[in-house]
Amino acid sequence: MIYPPVTKEEALKYRYCRWAGQPNGVIYMSRYCAYEVYDMGRGGLFHQCGRKPGHGPEQLYCKQHSKKLSRT
């Protein structure tokens, strides 16, 4: 993820899993971490991390991805 959302408003505007068959993507779900992760499956799409949030800016990220944000 090049520019991860920092505020709740940015997260609500962001769309995950965009591709030609689903150009609008999937909306942000607040019960999951806001970081976009790569799906190692056949499609190779990016989707929302499935971990529980509660860390990082505005409590949007899981513990693992909040550490990645602090490095940048």
Description:
21% of the residues lie in helices and 14% in strands. With 72 residues, the protein is an alpha+beta fold. It has one domain (8-71). A hairpin with a 7-residue loop joins strand 3 (36-38) and strand 4. The chain starts with 7 loop residues before the first helix and ends with a helix. The mean pLDDT is 91.
What order do the helices and strands come in, and which of them pair?
Layout: H1 8-13, E1 15-16, E2 26-27, E3 36-38, E4 46-48, H2 63-71
Antiparallel strand pairs: 1-2, 3-4
Q: Write out the strand line-up for the largest beta sheet, numbering strands in chain order.
A: 1-2
Q: What is the strand content?
A: 5-15%
Termini separation: 12 Å
Order of helix and strand elements from N to C terminus: HEEEEH
Low-confidence stretches: none
Structural class: alpha+beta
Q: What is the total domain count? A: 1
Strands, count = 4
Q: Mind describing the biggest β-sheet?
A: 2 strands, antiparallel
Shape: globular
Helix content: 10-25%
Total number of helices: 2
Q: Averaging pLDDT over every residue, what do you get?
A: 91
How big is the Rg? 12 Å
